[in-house]
Amino acid sequence: MEKRLQKSLLVIFLMSCIGRSSGQTCEGQCGQKLDSCSCHETCASLQNCCLDFKEYCVDASPYSGTIFGGTDFIILNATFAQNSNVTCRFNHEIVTHGYVDIENKGHCISPLLYETGWVPLEISSDNGITYNRLGAWLSVHPGKLDPRFRVTLDNSTKWQYYGTSNTKGSLQMTWNTSHVRAENVNIELWGYSEQGQPYSESWHGEWTYLYSLAKNYPNNGSFSFVPKSAEKPFSDWELGSVRVSSSSHPDGTWNVHAVWTEDHALAWHLEEKFREDSAAWALDKCLKWDELEKELPSFQDEIIDCPCTLDQARADTGRFHTDYGCDIEKGSVCTYHPGSVHCVRAIQASPKYAAGQQCCYDSTGAQVLTADSIGGSTPDRGHDWGSPPYRRPPRIPGASHWIYDVLSFYYCCLWSDNCHYYFKNRPSSDCRTYKSPKAGVVYGDPHYITFDGNRYTFNGMGEYSLLLSAKYGLIIQGRAEPVTMPNGTLARATRLSAVAMKEGDSDVIEVRLIGPEDSLQVLKNQEVLLFSEQNWMDLKGVFVFAPVAQNVTVMFPSGAGVELRGRSGTLATTVLLPEEFWNTTQGLLGTMNDDPKDDFLTSDGQRVPHDQNSPEELFTFGASWAILNDSSLFTYDTKALLDKYFYGPKHHAEFTPVFYVPENPDDPLLTEASELCSGDGSNFCKYDTLVARSLMMGNATRVSFRSHMAMVEALKPVVTCGWLAPPSNGEKEGTRYLEGSVVKLSCNTGYTLKGSKERRCLSNGQWSGETTECVPDRTVGIAVGSVIGGLVLITFLTAIILHSRRLKRK
Ligand SMILES: *[C@@H]1O[C@H](CO)[C@@H](O)[C@H](O)[C@H]1NC(C)=O
Ligand SMILES: *[C@@H]1O[C@H](CO)[C@@H](O)[C@H](O)[C@H]1NC(C)=O
Ligand SMILES: *[C@@H]1O[C@H](CO)[C@@H](O)[C@H](O)[C@H]1NC(C)=O
Ligand SMILES: *[C@@H]1O[C@H](CO)[C@@H](O)[C@H](O)[C@H]1NC(C)=O
Ligand SMILES: *[C@@H]1O[C@H](CO)[C@@H](O)[C@H](O)[C@H]1NC(C)=O
Ligand SMILES: *[C@@H]1O[C@H](CO)[C@@H](O)[C@H](O)[C@H]1NC(C)=O
Ligand SMILES: *[C@@H]1O[C@H](CO)[C@@H](O)[C@H](O)[C@H]1NC(C)=O
Ligand SMILES: *[C@@H]1O[C@H](CO)[C@@H](O)[C@H](O)[C@H]1NC(C)=O
Ligand SMILES: *[C@@H]1O[C@H](CO)[C@@H](O)[C@H](O)[C@H]1NC(C)=O
Ligand SMILES: *[C@@H]1O[C@H](CO)[C@@H](O)[C@H](O)[C@H]1NC(C)=O
């Protein structure tokens, strides 16, 4: 209730400002508003009316940087006196010192954090006495950061293996000198460790300055050194990062302008014992880790199962996302998963233990399992991307995953040949419990394909509930506006132009089509989010991924995903829902329960028959799902939007669409439309071309339809029989476990096969035939033995006889 009140206050406040003539200030009002409110989003609203808002609200440039900190950013929209003492406070707790440059611009340095996502930023110009400016800073996972912004480990393989046999010489690192503002730099090693009882209150992780590799070194962009083994206690640090920072700071000063390498296994600095016999050293570590794993709770049961096929994995975008380390789009450099061409990670960490899941696929699209190959999919005790609320293990992005899942891989698999210990604790799950999500879509001048497969058109103008699900508090709303024909006239048909959504008390995300080129704009709680520096953002209760201006993916903790695409002036919107939403959805995308008959339920519970319905009847059904001012998630930040959709009705009953397009044989566009639109779904393509007088629009409809059908096809459930073990003392041929796959089994010499030689995965998920065994062929052995023995005896006797005859002849 309080929230709703706050929001309507905000909207009303915004209203009153928009009415103001430009040039007028509203200082008092804005000052007061800011006092009582600490969130950055207030600034976005103030911006519309208050000339003096700049005094209070600032942007940072760059607005993002590595979780390690050290990024120097400019405080935009404010000038500072030369003698100001600028300090920045992050998260209301970490203070870093800034400075004022010759153009009177204030700068600050981002701090080392243990979390990713936006953190509140407060700025003071009087050395921290008052913090009167607000902003936000985006902390980014090292793996998601543009590599240009970090120190590069030249030949990272050599860094990883240095100290094992056959590694010698020097190691080199390089950096962009303009990222450290100094003539001379210190090059420092920092280490990460975790202490305390796992999964208890005392569990925590920490970065610590260890020692300097060089001091007062020229900032010339490259440094090479011959690594020496460290002595205790430093040699106990196995995960670290090298920092390059100005030599003017005392060693190990926190939060100064600096660049960092990736976090990496510190092979090159480990104790002398490692160099003497790295395999033995590593095995010892591997065994200790194995012991530790026995004591820690098992997390495998609560992580999501892997999709069975690469197609499923790439289509299930609400729950799985490309692993940055093994991406088929980027040439598949799969260092830790040889033989795989693509891996995905479960987006959400598991509920209790915050564990992660990683799923890898080979070039045929089959899942790779650790039971068959070293490149298999492996679960993770710590999710690589961390998980909200971050800050403490195992939720610290990157670092926790390194400690529990990556270092142990080095010990057991890379530095020694004992990978079976690793896979014992991190086995792939075959996909036997995986259930693919269901997809519904809105595209073109809006055509709907419900989760249960009904296809219909609803050309209302207004704002409607595309989907509501009380189970997770998921709300997805769409705004439909008239289509503009190429000649500028408005058509009597609409298209989606904006979609707003949230789940539970997550941030509200709105995606809207702006400008030419079908660019999409993303708003978070009514504030524009720029994806100019980063394409992934960890927000409150939601993740957003925007790799290009036309593509946005929104991912919620329930596993619901929303794919948005700008296409020829339309906003194609696909909603993916996992099975947990079964029979809990309402709205224009219908009830998801595999029953197409109950999809057309009006907001007051009337059922519209799903077959013999007319476009007019469906129009009434659609109109019933108009939203209310109270429930609207949209931002009304222009006069046009306010007039049309805030003060105006949510469903514009005065707008009647064209229900049937006359096909005039003399219309040249009809011929072209008929050529363009063929096959399944062609009626919508044709309708859109003719009603919008645009082949481009028709084509967008066709493309959206096809890509939806391809997605539905990719998500089709597949039957798997699960991993099949080779018989002991035998082998198997074949590592595919889906319906129709055949696995051949054979025995080593000296053994006889009992059971099936060949097993096929049947449609009921069972393997055909019987369990295969290899039994030692003792009985056969005796028989063969006696035959050979007999032959030897005969030969021997013959030889004696011949010999005695020869003797006799002599
Ligand atoms: C802040 O400054 C930047 C760069 O000068 C400008 O692009 C942006 O519009 C300003 N923001 C506001 C809210 O005035
Ligand atoms: C900044 O700090 C210096 C030294 O602490 C002090 O002399 C100066 O007055 C401060 N300037 C401002 C504007 O507070
Ligand atoms: C990296 O170092 C290894 C070991 O010294 C060497 O074999 C390899 O050729 C190097 N690779 C590159 C690209 O320099
Ligand atoms: C170094 O960084 C600066 C500032 O980010 C950039 O303009 C420049 O192109 C970079 N140089 C190289 C060689 O990447
Ligand atoms: C950087 O400075 C070091 C130390 O003076 C020198 O050995 C090295 O060659 C320099 N590197 C470059 C790229 O200038
Ligand atoms: C634009 O095209 C439509 C359909 O052909 C037509 O009805 C309308 O009058 C045209 N508008 C203008 C301004 O020519
Ligand atoms: C954007 O979306 C389109 C259509 O789904 C897809 O073909 C394309 O690969 C996407 N681009 C990126 C960079 O993800
Ligand atoms: C789906 O939900 C509706 C209303 O909540 C209920 O009446 C119906 O029985 C449910 N259907 C199934 C198959 O559970
Ligand atoms: C929304 O609120 C505004 C302002 O109170 C009002 O003028 C408008 O009629 C409301 N719209 C609806 C659909 O209730
Ligand atoms: C339709 O759109 C697709 C994707 O944008 C494009 O590749 C294709 O050439 C277009 N076809 C026509 C006939 O415009």
From TrEMBL:
<feature type="domain" description="AMOP">
    <location>
        <begin position="278"/>
        <end position="426"/>
    </location>
</feature>
<dbReference type="Pfam" id="PF23263">
    <property type="entry name" value="C8-3_MUC4"/>
</dbReference>
<dbReference type="Pfam" id="PF00084">
    <property type="entry name" value="Sushi"/>
</dbReference>
<keyword id="KW-1015">Disulfide bond</keyword>
<keyword id="KW-0732">Signal</keyword>
<feature type="domain" description="SMB">
    <location>
        <begin position="22"/>
        <end position="61"/>
    </location>
</feature>
<dbReference type="InterPro" id="IPR035976">
    <property type="entry name" value="Sushi/SCR/CCP_sf"/>
</dbReference>
<dbReference type="InterPro" id="IPR036024">
    <property type="entry name" value="Somatomedin_B-like_dom_sf"/>
</dbReference>
<dbReference type="InterPro" id="IPR001212">
    <property type="entry name" value="Somatomedin_B_dom"/>
</dbReference>
<dbReference type="InterPro" id="IPR013783">
    <property type="entry name" value="Ig-like_fold"/>
</dbReference>
<dbReference type="Pfam" id="PF03782">
    <property type="entry name" value="AMOP"/>
</dbReference>
<feature type="signal peptide">
    <location>
        <begin position="1"/>
        <end position="23"/>
    </location>
</feature>
<dbReference type="InterPro" id="IPR005533">
    <property type="entry name" value="AMOP_dom"/>
</dbReference>
<dbReference type="InterPro" id="IPR051495">
    <property type="entry name" value="Epithelial_Barrier/Signaling"/>
</dbReference>
<keyword id="KW-1133">Transmembrane helix</keyword>
<feature type="domain" description="VWFD">
    <location>
        <begin position="438"/>
        <end position="633"/>
    </location>
</feature>
<keyword id="KW-0472">Membrane</keyword>
<dbReference type="Pfam" id="PF01033">
    <property type="entry name" value="Somatomedin_B"/>
</dbReference>
<dbReference type="GO" id="GO:0007399">
    <property type="term" value="P:nervous system development"/>
</dbReference>
<feature type="transmembrane region" description="Helical">
    <location>
        <begin position="780"/>
        <end position="802"/>
    </location>
</feature>
<feature type="domain" description="Sushi">
    <location>
        <begin position="719"/>
        <end position="776"/>
    </location>
</feature>
<dbReference type="InterPro" id="IPR014756">
    <property type="entry name" value="Ig_E-set"/>
</dbReference>
<dbReference type="InterPro" id="IPR001846">
    <property type="entry name" value="VWF_type-D"/>
</dbReference>
<dbReference type="InterPro" id="IPR056619">
    <property type="entry name" value="C8-3_MUC4"/>
</dbReference>
<dbReference type="GO" id="GO:0016020">
    <property type="term" value="C:membrane"/>
</dbReference>
<dbReference type="InterPro" id="IPR000436">
    <property type="entry name" value="Sushi_SCR_CCP_dom"/>
</dbReference>
<dbReference type="Pfam" id="PF00094">
    <property type="entry name" value="VWD"/>
</dbReference>
<keyword id="KW-0812">Transmembrane</keyword>
<protein>
    <submittedName>
        <fullName>Sushi domain-containing protein 2-like</fullName>
    </submittedName>
</protein>
<feature type="disulfide bond">
    <location>
        <begin position="747"/>
        <end position="774"/>
    </location>
</feature>
<keyword id="KW-0768">Sushi</keyword>
